Amino acid sequence: MSTQREMKEKNPWHRPVTIIITVIGVIAIVALVTVAVLQNWPLSQKYKYGIVLDAGSSHTALYIYEWPAEKDNNTGRVEQTHSCTVKGPGISSYASAPQKAGESLTECMQEAVHRVPKKRHHETPLYLGATAGMRLLNVQNSSASNKVFQAVDEALREFPFAFQGARILSGQEEGAFGWVTVNYLDDRLRQGLETNGALDLGGASTQISFVSSNYDGSESPSNSVNFRLYGNDYNLYTHSFLCYGKDQALRMTLAQQTRSGPTSILDPCFHDGYSETKEYSKLYDSPCVSDRKPQEAPSTYIHTGKGNFHQCQEIVKSVFNFTHCQYSQCSFNGIFQPHLQGPFGAFSAYYFVMNFLKLTNTSIPLEQVKEKLAHYCATPWTQIQKQYPNVKHKYLAEYCFSGTYILTLLTEGYNFTSESYPNIKFIKEIKGSDAGWTLGYMLNLTNMIPAEAPDSPPLPHAGYISIVTVIAVLLFVLFILSMRPFWPQCSKEPQII
Ligand SMILES: O=P(O)(O)OP(=O)(O)OP(=O)(O)OC[C@H]1O[C@@H](n2cnc3c(O)ncnc32)[C@H](O)[C@@H]1O
To answer: What is stated as this protein's family in its record (predicted)?
Structure first.
């Protein structure tokens, strides 16, 4: 009993001071590691939201974007979480009943109210950008255009979001923001990689935007947009061709064929067997063709098809003007265009049409693509209708024209060749977000792409935690070793019990 007590008194590990120091040491190290881990633990994700309404010529679409609340300034993080297609036509079609333009947005806006968490409503910016349909209405009837905007404004103010206004985007903005969107989603801007050009085909206008090393903006400065994004300077070439969206281009090819006001036309861009009676007043009700309206034309004409790709291409070519160019080189209509450079993403109607025609694979030689389209155009209308009973009648009737228009615009208009055609990728979306101008527009207006690259911490989170843990363990081992003089000594002599 007394020897036991003696040993206890001699063994420093049994001294209260040593025990207390050890416990405090362990607690301190555990606390140090815990604080380091907790401090750097990602906060429970809170999101911010932004809503953009794309008021196009053919329809309006609503997009909701979401990004982690604490990382506004980082890239590649803003994502589309929801989209809603507004029922009915584009807002420019409500020129004679502006109130209905506002009302048409209600359903999608209510969806947005449910999709965005309530506590975020008041801080969620809401934008409406109108494109070529409203540009044309503004040219045709500016007071009607103002009334449509007034109605849309009033309707959107009813919702609990931070409404930032409704306006017409210039063609240059539409092109440039489309380019920002595709390159942002591909994470090319933050990483400073070679950028992709953007080809956007709408209903009433079409945009081409790309960076070319032989373009510094000095030739045709109106086509130049300068950006400084994440510390990199971009000199972007962009042009928007009003009236060269696929719906207005179709009007122009029809106007070309009805110049003398005939009662019927035999159109190679429509399938053999297609026949519909159409109104002249509707065909010419657009500033893109109104000046070509034939005098004393009957009220209607019969639009029949004969399905001939090559003849169709000739008519389509006739809506482009290649005769004059005051610059070193042009695309068409006397518009400057530098040498095409790099890969291109082609979206909106480029994708819808080429996807339907199963022609999105650009590694198929261009000549073969034309042959396939020629074969499609030559298919009788009755057979096409039987083959695609669920496709919207208007789209189905127009795919031969639309495909021919796309190939003609790309090759004759923009000068893509058999060699450069494979540089085009037909895309609908990138990483779940639709390709289009809306995301780039919101990123710009919310200043979410910084001009300079954001500073990043010298160590990533995992590296920081590992180093703190290693140091803590080393300290602990050092502490234990420093207590060596107090370690219990084992007797070398065998003990007889
Ligand atoms: O940019 P603007 O010129 O104002 O036009 P938009 O915004 O209305 O243009 P979209 O990109 O929404 O659509 C482009 C065109 O594609 C058409 N379109 C949409 N879905 C389609 C589909 O599935 N098949 C064929 N065409 C389609 C639509 O009617 C337009 O003519």
So the answer is: Belongs to the GDA1/CD39 NTPase family.
Token reading at 242: 């009003």
- Which H helix or E strand runs over 108? helix 106-115
Backbone phi, psi, residue 201, to 5°: -115, 110
CATH number for 169-439: choose from 3.90.1170.40, 3.20.20.70, 3.40.50.300, 3.30.420.150: 3.30.420.150
Q: Do the strands 125-130 and 162-168 form a parallel or antiparallel pair, or are they unpaired?
A: parallel
- The single-letter code of the amino acid at 150 is Q
Catalytic residue among 66, 79, 103, 174: 174
Find tokens 């022609």 and name the residue: 359
Query: Is there a contact between 66 and 48 (Cβ–Cβ < 8 Å)?
Result: yes
Q: Is residue 65 classed exposed, middle or buried when 0-12, 13-18 and 19+ CB atoms within 10 A define those classes?
A: buried
315 phi and psi angles, rounded to 5 deg: -65, -45
Distance 369 CA to ligand 1 centre (A): 22
What pLDDT does 497 receive? Answer: 47
48, 124 Cβ separation under 8 angstroms: yes
H or E element that contains 235? strand 232-242
Q: Spell out the domain ranges in the chain.
A: 169-439
**70 is known as an active-site residue:** no
Nearest CA to ligand 1 atom 14: 202
Which residues does residue 211 pair with via DSSP β-bridges, in sequence order? 236
Whether 59 lines ligand 1, by a CB cut-off of 6 Å, is yes
E strand or H helix at 11: none
| Ligand 1 nearest-atom number relative to CA 132 | 4
Each residue's pLDDT tens digit, 341-383 = 999 999 999 999 999 999 999 999 999 999 999 999 999 999 9
Is 205 one of the annotated binding-site residues?
Answer: yes
Which tens digits make up the pLDDT trace of 63-101?
Answer: 999 999 876 555 558 999 999 999 999 999 999 999 999
The response to whether 440 counts as a known ligand-binding position is: no
Interval 450-489: pLDDT, tens: 999 876 666 666 666 677 677 777 777 777 777 777 666 6
Which ligand 1 atom is nearest residue 347's CA? 11
Between the CA of 126 and the centroid of ligand 1 the distance, in Å, is: 23
**Phi, psi of 145, rounded to the nearest 5 degrees:** -65, -40
Q: Provide the strand spans (E) within 280-366.
A: 300-305, 344-348
State ipTM: 0.99
Give Cα separations from 481 to 22, 322, 478, 487, 488 (angstroms): 12, 87, 5, 9, 13
